[in-house]
Amino acid sequence: MTLETKAKELAEVLKETEEYKELSSAQTRVKLDPEAEDLLKKLQNAQQQLQNAQAEGQQVQPEQVQEYQDLEGQIRTNLTLTNLLKAQQSFGEVMNRVQEAIGEELF
């Protein structure tokens, strides 16, 4: 059996976890909520602008930081997006446990 086959098997097992199902559901709910989807896109764009400025050695403007912080605040008050963030965190914890288990077997 190849490594790729085992990885696909692991992916199938992960898809059956409650955490994955919650994440998938939360992602679908965001797509069905235009306000949440727009807010998320704005945050991602603001984050990308900040990262680009830093990568190019430019000083980040206070207005850019303020815009990003304002968007973060709006996300925290949007139920659809807070559910997405919680689901992402929970699934991330599952992935961390998987990574730890693999690491224990390797070392």
Spell out the blueprint of helices and strands.
Blueprint: H1 3-15, H2 18-31, H3 34-55, H4 62-76, H5 79-106
Radius of gyration of CA atoms, rounded to a whole number? 18 Å
Low-confidence stretches: none
Helix content: over 70%
Q: Strand-and-helix sequence, N→C?
A: HHHHH
Structural class: mainly alpha
List how many beta strands DSSP finds: 0
Give a nutshell description of this structure.
This protein is mainly alpha-helical and 107 residues long. 86% of the residues lie in helices and 0% in strands. The longest helix is centred in the last third of the chain and has 28 residues, at 79-106.
What does this structure look like?
By secondary structure, the protein is an all-alpha fold. It has one domain (24-106). The chain is 86% helix and 0% strand. The mean pLDDT is 95.
